[in-house]
């Protein structure tokens, strides 16, 4: 029962290493280092990253930007609640806000064009979960997250809220349409 | 007043009277909370099972808040306090330092848990365990958690104090045993954890009563998770210590090398607390370098430590079994292990489930970029149920089967049932976790009442496979709950109705004999490839890990390019 007893040597640091242990530690260490360097590698050579770009903002300042974009680029309205569908120019800055319990507005983007998508929350924390490709980000009030995205497949995408935000959390959906040019 | 001790004739363990009573009461409180938390878990499972969808939304979120707090914090920390007292006072044959303060700690933890429970029951605090600001909870929700944490902190210092007493009164020779060393690791991490909790929960409490106007939600997340995730690292250290203890109890296994095992615990102390980052990987406002360094526990050195424990614990069992003559082939030692003894089977299923499911998924989802396709999906609870419920809870259950006869001097009731309990709970929970991970990969959210989004202005449907995964999650979740309930019934039944063990184990005031150092290792130690079967198992683990890791990079590379 020696794991329950004091070690047999007073200086346990000198105990010999078994070959099984030594070999495994070496293999495990190599794998650990590989996994570590994979992350900076992907930042340089991979295509799916979040650079960490973000700005401090306020609900007022951010919703002003959203409203300006909606005023300028709304192409039609959808759903019983007349959500604006906004089609900003290719390559432009696009604003999306989360609030209890909507993602606003609906965005219409062109395939293979790059946009700077800015997202923030008007109230509590929300989760941006883009389905069906399952890309997820945390949306924190007071912070504007800036993701540079290049939608590479056309279709209808749904934004699910996946950070719990109160009793109607499950109704909080939004849409992004990606259309061919 | 002289201290009273008794020696358990079965196990040879020496119990200090005050410590023994405290261990019992903390363990009993833990088991009661496990029963409550498990019941809440059943309600969560039955609501997330799409075909059942039991509770209405508000009640679901209320129950989910309770389930998280009761199981992740209350059950586990009560049991850990019992483990800390056991690993200090009992293993070192030493009187427990300041038993009166230990009762104060117990009262604070019980009172704190009750206050938070009342807040949740009142309905105004359905904020999930994480209580992310600025979503408000009632002030006493935070207050209860703070009191609970203060109690736990006192218990940590009593553990440290007992180590000092043992050293001063020379109750043992040489260094503290490995299991106590593991408990010490857990204690150090616990102090860090509770300090983080205090730093964030005290201001949040003041905010909730109006003394502070604003808590930055990102700062909250970073510091809260320094408590929220680190508290799970207390569990890792504690349950690894329990694995070592059970290997010693069941097999008389000696650690393959004290140096390696203790070194691995040391890596936990140094790096395991960095894991707060795992929850911040797709947050705005935190730098990439910070994320990469912290999420990997500084180049995965804490993962390395877990991989070392994962080898040395079964390795030490293999060595012990081979010494007993189970030397045929690679795996006779494992085949001939006592699979019908829940102390062993619970521990071994815990180790496999924690490593293969909890461990691998944890590292994969904690990879900075891969987190983009996992964050806040039901993959996350799919990771931490195998980690905490199979890893920690099942290890504690296994230890309980050993402790009930020793502490309460009662034989286990329903022994035939107890044989199966670790399989039901361990395999049920593991499969539930796997199916949750599958559903999460398909985008199903965690903490979400309705995957059909009824009542939304928009519509969206997950595929049939996602529904099937959630149905299977429901089925195996129920299996897991049956396994958990079996444990409660067996343990409570044994304590109340088990046959009394008639032995001569009376308290006396005589000082127990000094704990001697372990006999030196036999000559073959350290001289060859002593645990080939374990090594092969470790390679299977590594292969699984590598394949699954790259599979997730492949998934990631198929989504929209973004930066």
- What's the story with the biggest beta sheet of chain B? 2 strands, antiparallel
Number of separate domains of chain B: 3
Radius of gyration of chain A: 24 Å
SSE order of chain A: HEHEEEEEEEEEEE
What is the straight-line distance between the termini of chain A?
73 Å
Structural class of chain A: alpha+beta
What's the structural blueprint in terms of helices and strands?
The complex is a heterodimer of chains A (181) and B (563).
Chain A: H1 19-45, E1 54-56, H2 59-73, E2 74-78, E3 83-86, E4 93-99, E5 102-104, E6 106-110, E7 115-121, E8 126-131, E9 135-139, E10 143-149, E11 155-161, E12 173-179
Parallel strand pairs in A: 3-6, 4-7, 6-12
Antiparallel strand pairs in A: 1-10, 2-3, 4-5, 7-10, 8-9, 8-11, 11-12
Chain B: E1 5-7, E2 14-16, H1 17-48, H2 57-90, H3 99-122, H4 139-168, H5 178-208, H6 217-251, H7 258-271, H8 288-295, H9 297-323, H10 332-335, H11 342-365, H12 379-408, H13 415-441, H14 464-497, H15 532-557
Antiparallel strand pairs in B: 1-2
Structure description:
The complex is a heterodimer of chains A (181) and B (563). Chain A has helices at residues 19-45, 59-73, and strands spanning 54-56, 74-78, 83-86, 93-99, 102-104, 106-110, 115-121, 126-131, 135-139, 143-149, 155-161, 173-179. Chain A has a domain at 54-179: Sandwich (Immunoglobulin-like), CATH 2.60.40. In chain A, the strands form 2 sheets. A 7-stranded mixed sheet of chain A has the order 2-3-6-12-11-8-9. In chain A, 47% of the residues are buried. Chain A contains 2 helices and 12 strands. With 563 residues, chain B is an all-alpha fold. Chain B contains 15 helices and 2 strands. Chain B has a two-stranded antiparallel sheet with strand order 1-2. Chain B is globular and about 75 Å long. The chains are: A alpha+beta (181), B mainly alpha (563).
